[in-house]
Write a structure and sequence with these properties.
Structural class: mainly alpha
Shape: globular
Distance between the termini: 25 Å
CATH architecture: Orthogonal Bundle
CATH topology: Arc Repressor Mutant, subunit A
Number of strands: 4
CATH superfamily: Winged helix-like DNA-binding domain superfamily/Winged helix DNA-binding domain
Number of helices: 6
Order of helices and strands: HEHHEHEEHH
Strand order of the largest sheet: 1-2
Number of domains: 1
Length: 114
């Protein structure tokens, strides 16, 4: 079981690396792309494991309505997630991505499904 979990986390991290700067996606969108639509929470756990690995842009993964629900897991404090997004041009107000529909990156659309 541990091996399948680590493979799933690796898959999640690979998708997260493809999110372009200035765009965001959701835990559920990554789960759907990986074929496990009901596993958004597992995607969240995988993103929590990514903190500290600068090659994985965990700050670009938010909840389904654009709220920075994972902000408390960032090294350096909860403001780090917002700071990284804003540095990429994503507007955030009251812990929520503004113009969410316009900056949302859907891996199903952008990457297609095999």
């Amino acid at each position: 079981m541990e091996d399948s979990k680590s493979n799933f986390f690796k898959d999640v991290h690979e998708v997260a690396r493809l999110i372009p700067a200035g765009r965001v996606t959701s835990y559920g969108a990554i789960a759907a792309y990986l074929g496990v639509k009901r596993s958004a929470r597992m995607v969240g756990w995988a993103m929590n494991q990514a903190h500290g690995d600068e090659s994985i842009p965990a700050h670009r993964v938010v909840n389904r309505i654009g709220v920075l629900s994972g902000k408390h897991n960032f090294l350096g404090g909860p403001e780090v997630m917002q700071q990284r997004l804003e540095a990429e041009g994503v507007r955030v107000q009251k812990d929520q991505v503004q113009d969410f529909d316009q900056v949302f990156w859907d891996p199903m659309v952008e990457l297609g499904v095999d």
